[in-house]
Write a structure and sequence with these properties.
This protein is of the alpha+beta class and 154 residues long. It has helices at residues 9-13, 16-22, 80-83, 106-115, 117-124, and strands at 27-31, 36-38, 46-60, 66-72, 92-105. Strand 3 and strand 4 (66-72) form a beta hairpin.
Amino acid sequence: MPQSLLRNHVLKTLSSEDFALLRPSLHHVELGIKDQLEVAYHPIERVYFPEMGIASVVATMTGGRQSEVGIVGHDGMTGVAVILGQDKSPNETYIQVAANGWILPVEALRSAIAESQSLRESLLRCPTRSSSSRPGRHWSTATPKSRSAWPAGY
């Protein structure tokens, strides 16, 4: 598919040189409700660039309560922890609204980032609503009312 026809904003707005680094490893995927994209504290193996649908980023609080801390739609991507040099996230990510989009193996992403500093910078600017700079730490769009409900480590 030509880059200009993509509906994912991140992929569509990459420079043609950076997109060319990713294109050979990108594959279209259909995702159903509750499909798991990332498991908390497990290695991230693939990143997703949704074209339709919504992925929820969920944190498990002390005591086992869960809270949605971010969403990823057609304007973002999953796996921001990978771009920040991590291999895991403290959150899980799953499909909340049936989706389709593009999937990219993490090793292909790391290889492309090693070739292009501008690719890493472009991906860091994507409007994904959650990020993890270190395992156990993240910012969120939803803040629990009491400190006892915050994720472990806060």
